[in-house]
Protein: NADH-quinone oxidoreductase subunit B
Organism: Streptomyces hainanensis
Amino acid sequence: MLPDPTPRSLGPLSRLAPKPMKVILNWGRRYSLWVFNFGLACCAIEFIAASMSRHDFIRLGVIPFAPGPRQADLMVVSGTVTDKMAPAVKRLYEQMPEPKYVISFGACSNCGGPYWDSYSVTKGVDQLIPVDVYVPGCPPRPEALLQGILKLQEKIAAESLPSRYGPKPASPPASRPSAAALTSGLVTPQAPGEGRR
């Protein structure tokens, strides 16, 4: 009897593939990453520098500037993700075919950077889409992106098909913080009846 196919699987027999076949599949994914650069600010210039002849990340098997998200394996989000741009990031990620990977490049993409307290900045692209590798810096040097790509390639080489495409364990529901935890010590609440005159 064949095993039941799991949601998002590559087929019912994918987990039964022999180990040499898994190594070949991971090797092919590892050294043929088509990159979709989602450049939003100054970090995108460092991405362009990493793709030029001095740093030349094509030698690592990374092909920059995929024609669009439907031809890309890797999305590099670089720059400040604003709340207005967040739906576009999510939509383009959803258009990428499986297997797909994401590198968050720079402090703004990782956590909001120097603009983290702005009302219009998303506090990290990982709030929208799953991120595989974080590259810190403001802006990070091209060598940092090369290191991030090497880390992603190590992760791809070690992954197995069932772990990537199998059913995910259900996470417990997040509990809401209490009102006391949300009250800031810097602002004292007004008593009822106290208002502007």
About this structure: The domain at 35-160 is CATH 3.40.50.12280 (Rossmann fold).
